Amino acid sequence: TITMFFSGGLIPTYLLVNNTLKMGDTLFALIIPNMLNVYNMIVLRTGFMNVPESLHESARLDGANDFIILSRIIVPLSKATLAVILLYYVVGHWNAWFDSMIYLRTRSKFPLQLVLREVIILESTTTTTAGANEVLGTLDFNDLNIYKKLIRYTAIVIATLPILFFYPFIQKYFAQGVMIGSLKG
Predict the structure, then answer these.
(1) Cβ atoms of residues 163 and 94 within 8 Å
(2) What is the rounded CA–CA span in Å between residue 118 and residue 159?
(3) Rounded (10°) angle between helices 141-183 and 112-124
(4) Which pTM value belongs to this model?
(5) Tens digit of each residue's pLDDT (9 = 90 or more) over 52-84
């Protein structure tokens, strides 16, 4: 469990992804290094261990092998745990703009979070760039501040909408998971 608290570090991970695995500037550089989280693995194991042993034994008596037991008994009974882990991964990867900034160089591969970050940085430096008066026209200082806040808040809403859309489909599994945990004593 020590790997839950300490990782190898940013530089060794960067060298592994870019030099050893040759995944620099690919989407695999964002997916593969973060596929397995030790904390999530422990949560899944705990959820799988809560399946009664009698179900395993009855499936064995019916002639089921390990794969059949996993796919037809354990996974369906662990939907709440799997839904929570899925939401953790989706939210974690959705908000991971830093990994994209490190590994990706081609702008067409940038995820939405990195693009929105650049938009916010660009709007915050608009007043200092040459030619800002031409772009903004005859806006006074108060209008400019309103424009900046509008861009910032619009970016926040755009970044939040997909997660808000995704959550209602998983919400019933959260309720099941809470009820299962409350009945055990």
Answers:
(1) yes
(2) 13
(3) 150
(4) 0.68
(5) 999 989 999 999 999 999 999 999 988 888 888
Alpha-carbon distance of 12 to 33, in angstroms, equals: 12
DSSP state of 17: I
Could you read off the pLDDT of 16-52 as tens digits, one per residue?
Answer: 899 999 998 998 998 888 888 888 888 888 888 888 9
Q: How many CB atoms lie within 10 A of CB 40?
A: 17
120's tokens: 């916010």
Task: Show the 3-state SS of 56-115.
Answer: HHHHHHCCCCHHHHHHHHHHHHCHHHHHHHHHHHHHHHHCCHHHHHHHCCCHHHCCHHHH
Phi, psi for 139 (deg, rounded to 5): -70, 135
C-alpha distances out from residue 3 to 6, 9, 31, 86, 125, Å: 5, 11, 19, 21, 40
